[in-house]
């Protein structure tokens, strides 16, 4: 039979084996953080793309930049839902907007929050609410499985709940669909309260004051993206080669354009 001293030795050994929690980073010092295990961790390197490199999304860029500028100036600003096709620049744009404001002298930081950490956001809100700094809270690629409490949790955090986000922080959420959760109608939606379920989903999307759509990229826009990268980075531009690269990957997007530029820079022996 294991006695108390044996259990204590086992517990001590397990504590030695477990990695220590990451040290808490100063929330007033770094340009970007990751919210991890209930603490802020400074990113190793925050190097967002220059805002002028992002082409084909001028209207989206202007709207999100204008809103973030207000947040940085402590003026009323919206929570933002960026929705649409994969690889169209949603995540890059959030980071680039924050980087551009920082380069312009604004005191704003990015905090990336994993979608499965939403329930810990009230703790983050408590941490940053008293600080004299603006924060763009970035939740990337959000989606919810059927039957989860995620939509209601996020609704409460956005607006109306006792633990709503503070005035110096706004959520920037990316999702592949306008209403975040899947479109397919499962048993829950075929049930007698199907209308209530749909209303609940729409109410979540409606909590975002700014909803910005991103759409599939046509060939001229794709080529304009590649050319803008090439000019900025001093790389040769060959439209036919860029099209062949996209064809080999089954489609065109901002992500495919950037991957092509990485390939091109490698061929040319240049660093990015």
- Are there runs of 5+ residues with pLDDT below 50, and where? 183-192
Number of strands: 7
- Tell me the name of the CATH homologous superfamily of the largest domain: P-loop containing nucleotide triphosphate hydrolases
Helix/sheet category: alpha/beta
Number of helices, counting only DSSP H or I runs of 4 residues or more: 10
Order of helices and strands: HEEHEHEHEHEHHEHHH
The proportion of residues forming helix, as a percent range, comes to: 40-55%
Please state how the strands of the largest beta sheet are arranged side by side: 2-1-4-5-6-3-7
Task: Please identify the top-level CATH class of the largest domain.
Answer: Alpha Beta
What characterizes the major β-sheet? 7 strands, mixed
- Radius of gyration, in Å, reads 22 Å
GO molecular function: ATP binding
Keywords: ATP-binding, Nucleotide-binding
Protein name: ATP-binding protein
Word description of this protein:
- This protein is α/β, with parallel strands linked by helices and 272 residues long.
- It has helices at 4-17, 58-72, 90-103, 121-128, 150-158, 187-190, 194-206, 219-233, 239-248, 254-268, and strands spanning 32-36, 39-42, 80-84, 108-113, 134-139, 169-175, 210-214.
- It has 2 domains: 32-214, P-loop containing nucleotide triphosphate hydrolases (Rossmann fold, 3-Layer(aba) Sandwich), CATH 3.40.50.300; 219-268.
- It has a 7-stranded mixed beta sheet with strand order 2-1-4-5-6-3-7, with helices on both faces.
- Helix 5 (150-158) packs parallel to helix 7 and helix 8 (219-233) runs parallel beside helix 10 (254-268).
- Mean pLDDT is 84; it is low at 183-192.
């Amino acid at each position: 039979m294991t006695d108390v001293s044996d259990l204590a030795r086992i517990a001590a050994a397990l504590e030695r084996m477990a990695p220590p929690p990451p040290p808490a980073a100063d929330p007033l010092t770094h340009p970007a953080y990751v919210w991890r295990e209930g603490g802020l961790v400074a990113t190793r390197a925050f190097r967002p793309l220059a805002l002028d490199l992002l082409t084909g999304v001028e209207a989206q860029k202007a709207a999100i930049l204008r809103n973030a500028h207000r947040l940085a100036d402590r003026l009323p600003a919206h929570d933002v839902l960026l929705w649409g096709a994969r690889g169209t620049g949603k995540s890059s744009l959030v980071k680039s907007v924050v980087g551009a404001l920082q380069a312009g002298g604004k005191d704003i930081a990015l905090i990336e929050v994993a979608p499965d950490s939403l329930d810990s956001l009230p703790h983050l809100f408590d941490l940053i609410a008293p600080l004299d700094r603006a924060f763009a809270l970035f939740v990337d690629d959000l989606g919810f499985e059927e039957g989860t409490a995620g939509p209601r949790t996020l609704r409460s955090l956005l607006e109306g709940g006792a633990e709503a986000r503070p005035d110096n922080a706004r959520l920037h959420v990316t999702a592949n669909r306008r209403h975040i959760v899947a479109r397919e109608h499962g048993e829950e939606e075929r049930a007698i309260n199907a209308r209530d379920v749909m209303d609940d989903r729409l109410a979540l999307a409606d909590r975002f004051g700014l909803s910005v759509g991103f759409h599939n990229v046509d060939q001229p826009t794709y080529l304009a993206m590649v050319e803008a990268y090439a000019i900025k980075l001093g790389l040769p531009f060959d439209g036919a080669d860029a099209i062949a690269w996209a064809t080999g990957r089954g489609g065109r997007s901002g992500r495919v354009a950037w991957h092509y530029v990485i390939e091109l820079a490698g061929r040319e022996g240049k660093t990015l």
